[in-house]
């Protein structure tokens, strides 16, 4: 019986652990970035936005493979984590609307028609279920001006 004790303790410990939502970890150093588009850039519409990713791979939505994700582009909203839902949005599926564009087929660029004026852009990588990784892999928000 003595030899079974440690295993039994382990089972008890796992039963006592709280049930946590599944988180998708990101590896250290993973980053997304805009390729060839800098904060303050003055551009003309349509604007081609290219998504850079280092330290991870791109996989389509619903594809569960370690250290992968798909791109999301946030257009004209508060910086991620500072909007309506605050920091809670780091734990939620990214909404799917004009402000939150999903590239669930694994696309790495998009061409946007934008009216003249200032626009903000931010990239956030999402896991198979469109939830940001832990820690989140996202760019800073940039502001571009469309002439
Ligand atoms: Cu998505």
Would you kindly provide a written description of the structure presented here, covering whatever features stand out?
The protein is mainly β. Helices cover 8% and strands 32% of the residues. The protein contains one helix and nine strands. Strands 2, 4, 5, 6, 8 and 9 form a six-stranded mixed beta sheet that branches. The chain has a three-stranded antiparallel beta sheet with strand order 1-3-7, with no helix packed on it. The longest helix has 12 residues, at 5-16. The structure holds copper (II) ion. The site of copper (II) ion (CU) has 8 residues, from strand 5.
In short:
With 147 residues, the chain is mostly beta strands. It has one helix at residues 5-16; strands at residues 31-35, 42-43, 47-54, 57-58, 68-75, 100-102, 109-112, 117-126, 142-146. Residues 61, 70, 72, 94, 102, 104, 126, 130 line the site of copper (II) ion.
């Amino acid at each position: 019986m003595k030899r079974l004790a440690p295993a039994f303790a382990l089972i008890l410990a796992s039963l006592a652990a709280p049930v946590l939502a599944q988180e998708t970890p990101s590896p250290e150093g993973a980053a997304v970035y805009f390729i060839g588009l800098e904060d303050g850039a003055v551009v003309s519409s349509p604007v081609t936005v290219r998504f850079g990713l280092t330290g991870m791979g791109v996989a389509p939505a619903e594809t569960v493979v370690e250290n992968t994700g798909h791109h999301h582009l946030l257009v004209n909203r508060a910086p991620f984590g500072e909007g309506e839902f605050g920091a809670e949005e780091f734990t939620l599926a990214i909404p799917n609307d004009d402000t939150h564009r999903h590239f669930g087929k694994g696309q790495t660029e998009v061409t946007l028609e934008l009216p003249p004026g200032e626009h903000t852009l931010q990239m956030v990588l999402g896991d198979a279920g469109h939830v940001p990784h832990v820690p989140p892999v996202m760019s800073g928000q940039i502001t571009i001006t469309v002439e």
